[in-house]
Write a structure and sequence with these properties.
Among the domains are: 61 residues; 114 residues, no CATH class. Strands 5-4-6-7-8-9 form a six-stranded mixed beta sheet. A three-stranded antiparallel beta sheet has the order 1-2-3, with no helix packed on it. The protein starts with a helix and ends with a helix. It has six helices and nine strands, in the order H-H-H-H-E-E-E-E-E-H-E-E-E-E-H.
C-alpha cells in the first residue's frame, strides 16, 4: 500500500514537472511574450530622440504594461483594469462618495461668512454652507465650457455659467455621488460686443450641451454681462443687436490696423 502511494506521488510530481518544462509552449505564455516583446520594441522606437524626462515616461508606461501582462490580464479583464487605473490616475473615486462628516475635510473660508469644505475622497468636490444653513455642492471637474471662435477653433476652460446651466438643465449634485470620468461640455460662442477685443467677452451664445456619454442636449440661450450681477439671460433680439455691434467694432479694428 505504501509503495503504491509513493508511486502515485512520484507520478504527480513528474506530471507537474512536465507542465513546468513545457510552460513556454502554452498559447497564453507565447501571447504574453509576444505582446511584451512588441511593447518593448515600440517603447525603444518612441524613446529615440526623447530627452530623459520623455524616455522616463515611456519606460514607466512599459513597466505598468508588463505588470498587467504578468498578472494574466487580457480581453475583458484588461479593459476593466484599465478603467480602474484611469480613474485612479485622474483622481476619481472608485465608488460613490457620500455627504457624511467623516468624508469632508476641515472647514476653510475664502468668501466671507460662508463655510467651505473639500471632499476627502474627491478633491474636485466642494460644499458651501451659508449662515442660514443652506448648502450648495459643486464639482469643478463636472463641467467645462468649449468656446467656439469665429474660425471654428475651440478653447476649453472652466466657467461658472457652464456649471450653472448644467445644474439647471441636468440637475444639481446629489449624494451618493459618483463623479464621471468625462465632463459635461457646454459649447458657446462668446465675444466683446463693444470693442471686439480679442480674449474679452460680454456676450455669450450657448449652442448646446454634450453629456459625458456624447449625447447632445439642446440648449440655445443668450447671456450678457450685467455689472455685479454677472451674466444674465436675454432674448434673441438683444443678442442680435449685440452681434451687429460686434461686427461693426470688428470692422473698425481691421480698418485701423
Amino acid at each position: 500500500m505504501r509503495i503504491t502511494k509513493v508511486n502515485q506521488r512520484i507520478s504527480r510530481l513528474d506530471e507537474q514537472l512536465s507542465k513546468l518544462l513545457h510552460l513556454k509552449e502554452h498559447p497564453k505564455r507565447r501571447l504574453h511574450e509576444s505582446l511584451s516583446d512588441w511593447a518593448d520594441r515600440e517603447v525603444q522606437i518612441a524613446c529615440k530622440g526623447e530627452d530623459g524626462y520623455g524616455a522616463g515616461c515611456y519606460q514607466s508606461a512599459l513597466k505598468a504594461f508588463r505588470s498587467l501582462m504578468d498578472d494574466g490580464h487580457s480581453g475583458c479583464s484588461i479593459g476593466f483594469t484599465k478603467a480602474i487605473l484611469n480613474r485612479l490616475i485622474d483622481g476619481k473615486p472608485l465608488t460613490p462618495i457620500n455627504d457624511t462628516p467623516e468624508e469632508w475635510g476641515d472647514q476653510y473660508s475664502f468668501y466671507g461668512e460662508k463655510g467651505h469644505y473639500q471632499h476627502t475622497r474627491a478633491s474636485s468636490v466642494f460644499k458651501t454652507v451659508s449662515p442660514d444653513g443652506s448648502v450648495e455642492y459643486s464639482d469643478v471637474d463636472r463641467t467645462v465650457l468649449v468656446e467656439v471662435a469665429d474660425d471654428g477653433t475651440e478653447t476649453t476652460w472652466h466657467s461658472g455659467l457652464a456649471s450653472k446651466l448644467v445644474n439647471e438643465i441636468v440637475g444639481p449634485i446629489t449624494f451618493p455621488y459618483y463623479p464621471s470620468a468625462k465632463p459635461y461640455k457646454v459649447y458657446a460662442h462668446q465675444f466683446d460686443s463693444v470693442n471686439a477685443e480679442v480674449g474679452c467677452f460680454d456676450t455669450s451664445h450657448i449652442l448646446k450641451i454634450v453629456d459625458p456619454d456624447g449625447n447632445e442636449i439642446d440648449c440655445e440661450r443668450f447671456y450678457v454681462e450685467s455689472g455685479d450681477r454677472g451674466f444674465q439671460e436675454v432674448g434673441r433680439e438683444e443678442y442680435a443687436a449685440r452681434v451687429l455691434s460686434y461686427r461693426n467694432a470688428l470692422k473698425s479694428r481691421v480698418a485701423n490696423k
